[in-house]
Records
---
Amino acid sequence: MKLLARAYALAPQERSVALLYAEAKLRKGAAAEAAALLEPFAASESDVAFLDTFADALLQCGQLDRSRTILEKLLKEKNEGIVRLFDLADAYASADQDLKSVEILQVLKRRLFADKKIVEFTTQLEYARRQTSGIHPRPGILGSVLQRTEPRIAILRSADPVV
């Protein structure tokens, strides 16, 4: 970390140095600092690794709407960021922003179904259902998404009160 901090101090205008330092900050739990390091480069960036790291930093420091903008751009332009969008839906749900969580899941459902990745979508939903069932049941979120999902994933509906 010290080496990266020194490299950044010597060349703060270098995007690759800032990205490496920001990734290290993220691993240490300093998401706000990581986002601040990447902010100067964000407007002109199109690199997937950079945008994913920046979106992750924003997500972890609670700037969910900014993270969403970046992740939706990644999904639309590069078909990337799918796993991070599931994380964002979970973050919105945890922040009691259920409507935004459902919107993200609907975007993911449309994209993954269009790409014939139905199993990937249902697997992620099942994982999310399991994560929330024992901790903090949120019957509205996944239930409303599943109600709007084609019968092909009806197997996910169960007697579990979360779904």
---
Amino acid sequence: MNSTKSPLPAAPVEGSAAEYWADIKSMAEEICTEYPDQDADHNDRCDRVHEDVDGSQWIIYNWRIPKVLEYSSNEPDAKEVQSMSGEDADWRKQQQIAAFMAMEADLYEAIKEEDERREEVAETTEDESVRAVS
């Protein structure tokens, strides 16, 4: 048997925690690239987060919604979920709103981490440039 390894890393299994976190990281990187100024672009970033989460396969597909709640490090407040879903909402709608809120919080955390990473890279690059000039 020929057991050559592919030079490409294996794709995460569909619906896995690895896929969820890879999607969150990818969205955060895209948002930080498109809107690099944390302060000036704040409203645009918030709009984009809402759009990305709302249109995400993790929120659209019913079989993925419970997985968001399983993988997320953010548990939404039950009273807030109930308030947002309305009195007549069934459990599926409430679960979808809870998943939306959890994923949105995960994405905001990932954006913060990506901003911090980019700041560290910028500082390191700046320090290296100063040393090179000296």
---
Amino acid sequence: MNQQKQFCMVRETDYTNEEEIKAILQKGISAETILSSCNLIRKKENGVVLKLPSDIDFLRFDKIDELKDIQKAVDWIKHQNTNLLSECIEKAGDIPLLLPVSGAFSLLVAVAGSDFLFRNLKKSQPLLLQAIKELNVITAKRVINAIQCGVKLISFSDPSALTEVIGEKMVIQYSVEPTYEWMKLIAPSLTNSIVHICPRLSFLLEKEQLCQTEMYQCCGESLSFELLSLGKRKEIAFTGHVCIHAKQCQKITILK
């Protein structure tokens, strides 16, 4: 677990709380304001890619109240309007995009509420596992659609599935094993794109022998820069073990 934590980091500055960003978003949530704020953050960070809001962020844009019901949460996510994301991708033009994607467990926590979901981890296990399986399919289809629209880099994480909160056994059951199944769903579509798996997941995927790893030496640029170059190699689809926010990367771990 310490190894996983060592390679997880956050952006050095949370620009979303800066007045410039707030002023843009106060004009309303639209593709234009989202891209404008994301592009401003990219320039502040001297970033290579424009990082879009995560799927959980898009859920929160709709300001839904916690549903406290597993199936209602799945149905709500299933019928969520994804036109805003599609419009962002289309209007970004030739700017390289990073699309953050969340695991099904974290999507359920975002919509059903953490207190409700954590109380039902054991009591509603079959229903919860079925919900995660269903959301895997939904998320995979949305990611494949984004790839077909030109997205080259996807960052996958499951931030609510923490071993220090629910224990490693449940993280493996509700997050790691479903992540592996999700990877199989989208792998055929990754001929010119790469999915980077959060270290918290990738180390457990390797530990559970769901993935093998191979090291690739690179040039010491930011991870996003190196991944964009790797995306042109059709034999590489998944990477991990280093945080997506890493600013210098000497080697990349390829997941197979």
